[in-house]
Structure formats: structure tokens, C-alpha cells
Amino acid sequence: MAGPCSALPPPPPPLMLHESFAGKSEFRTINRRPLESCFNPSPYLSIDVSTGGPLPDEAFINVTVGGVFRPDGSHWVAMITPSNSSVSGCPLSGVNYVETGDLAKLPLLCHYPVKAQLVKSDPNYLGCKKAACQKRDASGACKVRTCGATLTFHLINFRTDVEFIFFAGGFQTPCVLKRSGVLRFANPAKPLSGHLSSTDSSATSMKLTWVSGDGRPQQVQYAGGSRSATSVATTFTQKDMCSVPVLPSPAKDFGWHDPGYIHSAVMTGLQPSQSYDYRYGSDSVGWSDTAKFRTPPAAGSDEVSFVIYGDMGKAPLDPSVEHYIQPGSISVTRAVAKEMQTGKVDSIFHIGDISYATGFLVEWDFFLHLIRPIASQAAYMTAIGNHERDYAGSRSVYVTPDSGGECGVAYESYFPMPAAGKDKPWYSIEQGSVHFLVMSTEHPWSEKSEQYKWMEKDLSSVDRTRTPWVIFIGHRPMYSSNLGIPTSVDPNFVDSVEPLLLKNKVDLVFFGHVHNYERTCAVYQGDCRGMPRKDVNGIDTYDNINYTAPVHAIVGAAGFKLDGFSIIRQSWSISRISEFGYARVHATKTDVLVQFVSSSTMEIRDQFRIVKGGR
Questions:
Q1: Taking burial as the number of CB atoms within 10 A of a residue's CB, which of 219, 260, 398, 410 is the most buried?
Q2: Which residue in 561, 546, 541 sits closest to 608, CA to CA?
Q3: How far apart are CA 497 and CA 90, in angstroms?
Q4: Quick one: angle between helices 450-460 and 491-503, nearest 10?
Q5: CA 577 to CA 579: how far, in whole Å?
Q6: Are 340 and 275 in contact (CB under 8 A)?
Q7: What is the pLDDT of residues 174-202, one digit of tens each?
Q8: What are the two backbone dihedrals, phi and then psi, of residue 520, each rounded to the nearest 5 degrees?
Q9: How many CA atoms lie within 13 A of 114 on its CB side?
Q10: At 452, is the secondary structure helix, strand, or coil?
Q11: Taking the model in full, what pTM does it have?
């Protein structure tokens, strides 16, 4: 949820590390009304966009407004897509934001604006320090002086055309001052945002998924161009989104944006732990830049290294307000990119609450753009969370509006995992010495459910001589010291699934959902069955030669506003950190090392080991 500050900040520093600044406001659920032009506007009003031609795939563009008689703090500029979207005033749209949990002060138009900025964020505006003379008398003296401002917007190729609109009246009572006219992307069919995923435990194939405005088959060319694979394109429509009769969901109405086409192709004939170059696209729509990835180690090999986090989302790279800003997302992706440069990251696991688009579909494009530098280099494995799945009619365990009507459709389209089937987003995969089980906490998990029976079968069939470590992954946690409302821990989930972990000697459990980092003892039913001891380097070490229970770690600190902890500390809670960051994990046949890394400093804030066969 957005932070409690009440005003927009000055433009961000050069690195554009975005902080959550959108203030809270009250929303009135009144009927939609037509939006008129502002009363008696200046005849000199202008809005100019510094594109120099069709829009590129990415740019920071300057939007300059001018011809203003009286600068006002309520003036703002919105970026609208597509350009024919309704920009009528819709106070009812406040409900569309609120139902996804976002209480920020955001524009109440009938179609969600991609971005918006108050014009006063240009410090020269209110004082009219950028004045222009519109009319002079016979002596040359200025008779009509007007004011202006320049704002910078970060733009990416989301395929549909764009318009910038200059408003007065603030976010809640807007009226139109001036429109820029339609701007179009140079190549709306351009293949973009390629990201990788593993298909099985052999590490001899990798799936590449990307987005394009063209649904015809495209290709991925790899291994120096000597091999290629043809894509299969899918998409989804407004009809695929969930809604309720009384109030259409954001995805069905207010926040809909055409996703274009999602292409996937499988690269085969690969070798484990090897690097390959690749590019994707076609001669007709263009090609991506050449990139390089490395396959993960095959199941049963000696070691694996991975990064794991949850609840990332995205944040703007400019001073704009947007729906659901996750202030830590930029620093975490940049820190993980530095990890990738070491060559020691075999895979990335993002365990729920992926983009926080929650029915505002264009935000998936911005999220995919954010993770591209890391997800294009290694397998980006995901788990579904409440903000991807939950909505009335979705058959989720939890009947909340958290997905904004997406109901898992967008998530499964953008992140095709090696899952059990459509709308069955659970899977297992082995890399190196680890067997990973990835479940859905949003789909039924009770003892009679399909997912439970699958988990039971999967865990009981692990060959510990090949993969001695079992890591269990999901979104909602079993243990948390956060006292959120509603509660972060569902006791029914714990009662149903925790015995399965103990029975099958699961070593380590990762969850998200709570926006911090917390580590437990070796815990079962709230009781510590094993406490860590310090090794020779002072690192907490759990001895699993004599297994007692799983160790749980919450790693939901990758972007969303951070959560705190209860003042009362439970006996099972060993380490509690409320900082943005991620976990770095290295597993051999006898040792697992987990380190929680602060994304702002790259410092290790907590670390522990689990050992088998000595210390």
C-alpha cells in the first residue's frame, strides 16, 4: 500500500530510485459525469512533447506546457493510452483503486491514466519563472505574459498510441485544458521483454517468453545463430477477466489494456551450466538485441546457486504517480543485476505478488521491462500470489479483490511455468542438489484437494541420493511476527500442509506475502524442535543429520512498502529484518547457505546454514 506522505516530491536523483510518495485520500462513490473543458482557459495554452518523430521503445521524454495565465497547484498532466480512452471525470474510479488495496491519491478518470504528474513538480511553475511573452505593444513591451513548465516522463513501448493531456482541477475534479494530439510507437509489433524459465530438471532446454504487437509466429535464434525455435503466440481479452455485476473489476473496465501477443519458444539441445547467446523476433517485425543466458545445473549435480524473493512489483523511473508503487522494486532489481554479474546465479525465484498490476494491465509491460536485465540471463521461476489470482468467482481459497479481476490469467500468460496444467500453477523442479516444490497458496490445498494429493506424491518420491535437499516454496506464510489485518497466517493452511512438510523431512521453506524478512528455528506446530548453533565463522547452523523440522524464511521484502513486527517476540522467531532485499542461496550436497542481502548496501544482514554430514 502506498505510503502516508501528503505531497509529491521534487524530481528524483539521477539514479531515479523511486520512493513511495502518493498520499492517502478519501474516495466518493458517486456516478460518473462528463468531463468538460475548463472554464475560460487561456487562448495561448499549449502542450508539446519532445519526441522528434514516432515514439522509440524506451525514452525519457519532456512534456512542456505553456500559455498559462495563472499557474495553480491543481494543474497536472496525464499520459493516456490508448489515445481514444475516456478521460471523463469519474469519481467512482476511486473504488477501482481501493478494491485492490491502493489508497493513494490518484487521478479519477473513466480510464486509468498510465502516469500522472502535478505540474508544480517543476519548481519553476508556481512562481512563473519560465515566462513567455505572447503579445507586445507597438513599443515592444510585453502586454501578455504567460507561464510554463517542463515535466519528464519515462515511456516504454506498450504498443498502443499515447496522448498527453493537461488538466486543471486536481485529480478528483479534473477538467481538460489542452491535449497533445496522438503519438504512436515507431514499431508497435517490436518483440520485447524476453524472459526465461526452466522446463524440466535436465537443464537441456529453456523456455523464452516475450511480448509483441504481432501474433504471427516468430523465432528465437540461439547458439550463435546455428539453432532456432518457432514461437507459439497467445493472448487474453477483457472477456477472460473476472468481475461482479454491480461494479466491474478494474481488469474488465477501468484498467484494461490490450496485452498484444505473448510468444513462447523452447530452446532445446542445450547443456547444463553452459552459456548461450540468443535473439528473438522475425524479419517482418524486427529482432531483439542479442543477449546471453546460462542454463542451470542439472538435477543431481553437486551444487546450485539462486536468488529468491517475493512481493516485488514495480516503480516509475520518473516523478509520476501510478497505481500501486512498490518503492523497493528498483533497488532490488539493480542489486540482483549486480549479483548476476558475478556469474554465480543459476536461477531466480519470485514467489508471488509479481507485478501488482491488479487489473491495470499496462503495468505488466512496465514490470516486464523492469526485470528484463535479470530475467533475460537466467531462469526466472515464479509462484502465484494473491495479487495475481484472488477475486470473486475465481474459485480462490481467499475471496478478496486483490487481483483486480485478473484471476491468474495474465500471470499464467506472462509466466508459463512447468505446471500441472491450466489454472494449476504448482510444479516441482530439480537443480543441482535441490528438489524445489512450488505450490499455490491461492488454490485449494486441503487434504482432499488435487494440489494436496500432488504435493504428497511429489514429496514422497524425492530421491535424496540425487537431491539431498528439499525446499518448499509458496506465497502466504505459515509463520510471521507481523500483526497485519487481515492476519498474515491462515491456521487452516498450517494445519493442512505443515504435517506434510514434517513427514517428508522438508529442509527449508520460503514464503513471501509479508513484506519483510524473518527466519525461524526448526519449527513445527509453533514449537522449536531445533535451534541453530554458531559455526567456527559465527554463522547460525542447523544440523539436519538428525532432522527435527523445517526452517522457515519469509523473503517478501523485494518491493512493496515494508511491514514491521510485533513487539512480542515468539520463541520460534530467530531473525527479523525490515529492509528491502532478497535471499542469496548456495547449496552443495552437504551444506545450504542462505544470506539475506540488503538491496541498498549489498550487505549481508542475516545468514544461516543447514548441514548434513558434518560442519
A1: 410
A2: 541
A3: 45
A4: 20
A5: 6
A6: no
A7: 999 999 999 999 999 999 999 999 999 99
A8: -110, 170
A9: 29
A10: helix
A11: 0.93
